[in-house]
Amino acid sequence: MHQTFDLGINLLHVNQDGADHNRAHFDQWGITCFNLMSSPGAGKTVLLERTLAALSNKYKIAVIEGDMTTELDAERLRKYDVPVIAINTGRSCHLDSKMVAGGLHRLSHEYNPNDFDMVLVENVGNLVCPAEFEVGEHFKVALLSITEGEDKPLKYPIMFQEADCLLITKIDLAPYLDIDLQQIEANVRQMNPDVTIIPLSTKTGVGLEAWFTWLTAKL
Amino acid sequence: MHQTFDLGINLLHVNQDGADHNRAHFDQWGITCFNLMSSPGAGKTVLLERTLAALSNKYKIAVIEGDMTTELDAERLRKYDVPVIAINTGRSCHLDSKMVAGGLHRLSHEYNPNDFDMVLVENVGNLVCPAEFEVGEHFKVALLSITEGEDKPLKYPIMFQEADCLLITKIDLAPYLDIDLQQIEANVRQMNPDVTIIPLSTKTGVGLEAWFTWLTAKL
């Protein structure tokens, strides 16, 4: 999408300044921020549902929920009795640091931000652009549904290079697919040797404890 | 992604001029062009494999294959003995009309473009941006994997509003998912009442004849 570079103006630098500003606020408040990214339908929202159900009584959590339109996902998460700030990006294919700054502004006005342990950002479903637009997160979490195939880490390298944690979702479907989980992992490692890889299923619960352990160890 | 509008420069208009130019070439050559778009892993490449296997002896077909990196998909399609022009978009999340113009330039130098009936463009896997950047196609074909869930047409409206044909893929997985195919169709219709909807599975073959019929009827 970076025809913008043809104009000699680096919008990524402008975005990065805003991300650094957001991160300074998170640090000041003692909040760890995670940016969850994936293709549409890889299971970000259901993962957040399981995460809030398991952790929201032990940790103070807020969610920033990015969607082009609708508050469908935000409504699902509000049932867990945590602050959910919905950001509609309109025609934009990713959250940017300015949008998230607006969300933090609301959070810090309606609550005491020093009370919070973590902010979970659910980005717009897109395996390309969100990886390039930091929003001030401390950690990037990428989800790849096993249904998407083995080759995606090779074909969409930036997301996999940038991720601190890679969740391979919907592994309950593995018996019905001609897809090799170990090949997915090998392709991810080729892009990013040190990333944490956690295969999981929100349907069976496999892998969720490993995810909660990784997440809370980062606080 | 259109921070670019903040600069007062409408890159979409520049792209549209290029798309109109490409379409004029297609018309002059008697070629019908289809732009296939979806999230990563919805099955665009395997659909093209099935399509080439079924139709490449009856029609003269060329493929323009867009990927950020690698020629993995292009290599899969070259086995079908049709011209496959690979375009690596680098960091760009979609094909644009200028990239496709480069592809047409190669096609028209290496072959007689008047011989061709159709050009199938496989876009970068992304449910957002490709819908806004025409490449000169006559028809937009969107794929939605049934694994992505019922709500995607509501959450990513532009793709579904723009599509002339919507293929719901991987329906062989329906028995293993808590997903209602009729609800997907209803949500698509809410965005685009007149779109052709074809549920299919490249694994079982269900729906492929309907797809071939739709495709060849447009020539």
Describe the structure.
The structure is a homodimer of 219-residue chains. By secondary structure, chain A is of the alpha/beta class. Chain A has one domain: P-loop containing nucleotide triphosphate hydrolases (Rossmann fold). Helix content of chain A is 38%, strand content 18%. The first copy, chain A, has helices at residues 11-29, 44-55, 72-78, 97-110, 152-155, 157-162, 181-191, 208-217, and strands at residues 32-38, 61-67, 84-88, 118-122, 139-145, 165-169, 196-199. Chain A has a 7-stranded parallel sheet with strand order 3-2-4-1-5-6-7, with helices on both faces. In chain A, strand 2, helix 3 and strand 3 (84-88) form a beta-alpha-beta unit. In chain A, helix 1 (11-29) runs parallel beside helix 4. Chain A is globular. Chain A starts with 10 loop residues before the first helix and ends with a helix. In chain A, 46% of the residues are buried. The interface between A and B is large, with 44 and 44 residues.
